[in-house]
Give the backbone structure.
Amino acid sequence: MRTTESGPPSGGERAAHLAAALTRLEQRIDAACRAAGRERDSVRLLPVTKYFPASDIEILYQLGRREFGESREQEAADKVASLGRLSQVRWHMIGRLQRNKAKSVVRWADTVHSVDSDRLVRALDTAAGAARDEGVRTNPLRVLLQVSLDRDPTRGGVGPDDLAALADQVEATENLQLGGLMAIPPLGMDPDSAFAELAGLHRTLLRAHPGASELSAGMSGDLEAAVRHGSTCVRVGTALMGERPITSQ
Ligand SMILES: *Cc1c(COP(=O)(O)O)cnc(C)c1O
């Protein structure tokens, strides 16, 4: 929602705004779960804080949130460094990732949602191994494979035909853990059919990799459809934070 005020709102106003938006969003997810006949605790909300200041993350932390999604590596690394005092936060990298950012991302991310190539898998495995040797991280890096449902490689994601091989490759690494799948419905594709196809791919993946239970699907505009089709993690920016200050992508 656009606001009419010119300057940034004061801290108290912003906190009240985020608290109200979070309540509305939780109600929306509750309703989506009820409509789908699913338990509320089978779907996690991942607030997406890209383009918003670290002070917003602090407010959300005060409101009880402990997981945050970011999509630009450098911006995220800076925010994580400035928020080091917040304990027990799990950070998620959800945007496209260049291989040359692997070394940096493994220093702050718990999970990367956007893994889509064998070269990126190798780079992340090597980087995560080095970070563990240095003691910068203790656990393996959890990765989700991003699926391209329209098979358009320019928008990121691995095509359905290459998914099984990539999953096997992740399982064979030492420092990565296969968490599941992620997708963004292609522009112009009905979200219900996109998420139905994704759910089918997830069922197939689970037969070979029973631990890969995460299905990261659904954003501000389509989370109900994603929940209907088995999403376990909705990544919500706009409906919580408001319009992003500058357009992404
Ligand atoms: C920005 C972003 C989101 C959040 O999108 P909204 O429509 O603002 O909720 C979700 N997933 C990814 C990968 C994103 O980059």
The longest strand covers residues 176-183. Residues 48, 50, 71, 94-95, 184, 219-221, 235-239, 248 surround pyridoxal-5'-phosphate (CB under 6 Å). The longest helix spans residues 11-36. The CA atoms of residues 188 and 211 lie 32 Å apart.
